[in-house]
Each structure stands twice: as C-alpha cells, then as structure tokens.
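Why do we care about 3D structure at all? Because function follows from shape, and shape follows, mostly, from sequence. That is the central idea of this module. The next example makes it concrete: a single protein chain, its amino acid sequence, and then its structure expressed as tokens.
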Amino acid sequence: LASPRAIEIEASNGASDYGNKFGEPVITGFTRSAGLRLANGERREWIKPIMFSGGVGLIDARHTDKDGPETRMWVVKIGGPAYRIGMGGGAASSMVQGDNAEHLDFNAVQRGDAEMEQKVNRVIRACSELGEDNPIVSIHDQGAGGNCNVLKEIVEPAGAHLEIREIPLGDESLSVLEIWGAEYQENDALLLRPQHEELFRSLCEREKVPVSFVGRVTGDGRVVVHDAADDSTPVDLALEDVLGDVPQKTFECERVERRFDDLDLPRDLTVDGALDRVLRLLSVGSKRFLTTKVDRSVSGLVARQQCAGPLQLTVADVAVIAQSHFATTGTATAIGEQPLKGLIDPAAMARMAVGEALTNLVWARCTALQDVRCSANWMWAAKLPGEGADLYDAAVAMSDLMVELGMAVDGGKDSLSMAARAPLPDGGEEVVKAPGALVISAYVSCPDIRQTVTPDLELPGRGRLLFVDLAGGRQRLGGSALAQVFSQIGNSPPDVDDPALLARAFKAVQELIAVRLVTAGHDRSDGGLITTLLEMAFAGNCGIEVALPAEPETDP
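And the structure:
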C-alpha cells in the first residue's frame, strides 16, 4: 500500500483533475484519518484515508421511470472501449486488503476517463432535452460485473441475443471472458426502439462517442452471447436462474464483547494546548489543500460551494445548485458522518450521522424536513468478527430515526473492503480494521437558493451569537476530536436523544432563515463548540465575544 499521505494527495488530485476535465464541480465532501489501538488490542485505522466528494444534479420528472424491454428492441452500449481493467473489482471490494494476489488487485482497479464521461453525458443530455421524444427506453450504468451484469439486468426478464464482438475493444488481446467481465468505466447500456436507431447514431456521431448495437431483445427469457470469431456461444443463461427469486441468504453475525476506558486527559492540559492539537487534526483543520486546486463553480449553476466569507475559507455546511440559469429554485445537499463514535456505539453513530446531515442541511432554505431524501454509503469490514452485528445495529438505528423524522433513504452504496493486512516489526502481520462508517448524503429542494446561510459572520459589532443546544447540556466526549488527538476513544458518545427536538429545531431555524433573521450559522461537530465559534470568526474575518454558563452540566 502507498502511504496514507500519498493516497490522500493523489486521490485528491485525481478527483480535482477529473472534475475539471468533466466539467462537473465538486461542491461538497470530507476527509478523515485516524489510527487507534483499542483497550482490547484491536488496531482501528484508515490505512487508506477516507476522502469523500460529491455533487448533485437534476432530472426531468418525465424521465424518472424506465420502460421494460420489448421484443426486437436494440441493446446498445455507449462509451469507451473495453480494456483489461476492473477485472473482479466488485469481488475485490469486499475482501481484506492483502488477501488477494497483487496482480489481481491491480487488475481490479477501475480507471477513469473524464473526456469520455463528458461525451457520454452530452449524448444522454441531448436525448433528455428532447422531452417526450426522448429515444432512451431504459438506461443502466456499467459497474461491478461489467457487461455480464449490465447487459443481463437491462433486458430482464425478456432476455436478448448479444454479439460479443460488437463491443469495441481498446486492447485486441482481451479474451471473451475479459470482454464479458471487465468493469471499464464511462460506459452505459441502453434499450432503444428500432425506429430511433438513426437518431441515436447521429447524436453519438455528433459528440464523437463510440456506440455499438450489440444485440436485440428476444423475449424468450434467456441471455445468449454469440462469438462471431469462432461461431461459438460462450454464454447461454436463463435469466430466471441468475436474476430470479434466489434463496434468501442467511448471515450469522456474532457479537464481540468490547471494553472501553474512561477518557483520561493529561492533568496539566490547558485549553490552548488542547486546541492546538484539535485544530491540527485532519477532520477539523483547513481543507484548502483539497479545494483550492479545483474549479468549484463550473456550469454556472453552483449557488453555494465549500468556500465562504471574504477569505474564502472551506467552512460551508451545505452545497446548493440552481435549477436553471433563469430561476432561483434549486437543490441543496449536505453530508453527515461520525465514524469514530461507532467504535463505542454503532447505533448512536448512525443517529449522529443523520443528525449531522440535518444540522448541515438546515442552513439552506428547504421545502420541508419531510422532503429530505438521502443516500446512505456504508464503509465497513462487515465480514470480520463482531462487525456484521455492529453494521446491523447501525442500519436499524438509522432506519428508526428516519422513520420518526419523516425522512427516507432512496439510494446508497457500500464498500466492504475496509480491512487490510499490515506487517508487524517481528515479521508477522495483523489485520487492521477501519472504523465502520455510515455516510448520509441528504438532499432536498430549495424554494429560494438566495436564502442560504454560511458560517460567515456578516454583522461585526452588532450581530448576536445564539447557541441552540440539542444535547440538553450534556458534554459527551466519546469518539470526539479531543479524545482522538490523545489516542483515546472514551466510553460515552453523544447521541440523538430527542428526535422530536431535532425536528422542531430544524423547522425553527428554517422559519428564521425565511424571514431573514439569521445571517450566519454553523453546526457543532468535530472539535466541539470552540471549533464552531472559531470557524465562524475566521470565516467572517472578525473577532467574537462569548459568554458560556459558569458550570455546565457534564457527563464524562
């Protein structure tokens, strides 16, 4: 493995370069790093640091539902040619890093081609802008499993006859197996009616995008792959056997007893000393090294990106895009994640992730809390002892809280390769697990994108700072940045104790923003209240005076 610093820098460079070339701005995200040894001897560390970036888009409501396959429809592939990349990537993403052979790991890595992605996007957008005359019947992105997955799924349950040699190759040495299974990116499968063939070919020719009509829907329920090179049939499957009602899998999850020590800070620790450490932490400190090298406004529709205030510091809580160049309606998106707290209590971590997403999202004017929809990304070493049960507890907690708040998850993704074999000084090795992480990406419609609040203190000398305490005065430091900088975890994490209070606070802040009584706002998260206040002062390029209760109620 490369060093964590190298991974952080190179991954960031890749995302920045891709976004710039593709013309899709990165307008939100986070990065996180940690390395701890728990009281039971477990080493929990992101040997591969987490860097999560995102954007948000819009779709015409007329095109949200796919139509089913019909006999004689064309099965079409659009995008870049096939290469020997992403072989077994879907399987490798669920393995402990180091269990796979090195050359297999290398082949499993997917590579990106931003220019091809942009071309494919322009063709699909051209079809979408035809409105009711959109020729695309159904579309499916190519991911895990490559052609063998995307082509089966898009013709289910009707079946199709496919010509494997119609797929464009970037490497003529590929075997049929590799053409069928490679997970090369920037590629989609579509269904088209025969009468739209000429129109679609002309759009692809205009944008200089490779397109191949690889087969037709048959209606017999089978996927047959023909190889014209030797007149063989390497694949002949009944779709019902592979995509039908397969037996439900049973997972046996064992629980592992874990012990957590009380947080024990140095006796001579000062506020200045603690703050000096906390502000250096990757999850708390400035993210300018990730954002200042990428275009965050390309497209002309970005109303709010990561940077705010006169100094353009990376402190924004929410990202907002406009619906069009001629409207003030749009969409807001925000992220919530608190993985270190999950080492103590996975359920509390999941609830805190949902809560953080909402306390970030609240600073953009939203239609209603009940309109919020989310994508849930799970990054967990779920196959290792105790981790499957923790993942289950987190999923149940997230679901229960969202039901109570009236929110919903309508998408998501997972990565289960969150463990790696690391060498020991004595020549042996140990399995290092990353902290299990749930990332909530929330998004909602904005009735007025101009009513978005940032942490930038815009009223120096006359503004008032108000603290809305959703924790009932409790100061729980388990899984906090303060604990982490002293290589500890603690035993009592914060939690969403009162979902109804969270919902009422969300509504109240929204009402204040609507009548323009709030000019600045920021959530309390990593680094605690002092970090929140400092970031607001930094963003506004001004000083602040703060009065706190003399003896707040504490809960170690």
